[in-house]
């Protein structure tokens, strides 16, 4: 009988590009807990205590903010994301057709 080991995403989050892609993928999910769990995985990979210091938060506050079901304040999430060295960007959810682009230019 083979024994399965528990998957730990933090073990694979070893460079900035992988971390950014991981968080980007988590943001695509409608469930906010997915993003919080992803940030928690990155925090674990980077070191929770150091991240808490970099974000200007207490370690326990950071753990609490990243717990699934938590409803952290926007400024807390922003501090943590910035301390991780990543940015969150907005982009349109659909591509504008050429006719709509032309209509906007004439306005």
Describe this structure in words.
This protein has a single domain (9-89), classed as 434 Repressor (Amino-terminal Domain) (Orthogonal Bundle), CATH 1.10.260. 57% of the residues lie in helices and 0% in strands. By secondary structure, the chain is mainly α. The termini are far apart. Helix 1 (16-27) packs antiparallel against helix 2 (32-46) and helix 3 crosses helix 5 (74-83).
Number of helices: 6
> What's the architecture in CATH terms?
Orthogonal Bundle
Overall form: extended
Which fold name fills CATH's third level, the topology? 434 Repressor (Amino-terminal Domain)
State the helicity in percent bands. 55-70%
Report, as a whole number of angstroms, the end-to-end distance.
Answer: 69 Å
Alpha-beta content class: mainly alpha
Tell me the count of domains. Answer: 1
Strand content: under 5%
Helix and strand pattern: HHHHHH
Overall pLDDT score:
87
Determine Rg (CA atoms, Å): 18 Å
- For the secondary structure, the number of strands is 0
Low-confidence stretches: none
Q: Sheet with the most strands?
A: none
Broad CATH class: Mainly Alpha
Features:
107 residues; 434 Repressor (Amino-terminal Domain); extended; 6 helices; mainly alpha
Can you give me a brief rundown of this structure?
With 107 residues, the protein is mainly α. It has helices at residues 16-27, 32-46, 48-55, 59-65, 74-83, 98-106.
Topology:
Blueprint: H1 16-27, H2 32-46, H3 48-55, H4 59-65, H5 74-83, H6 98-106
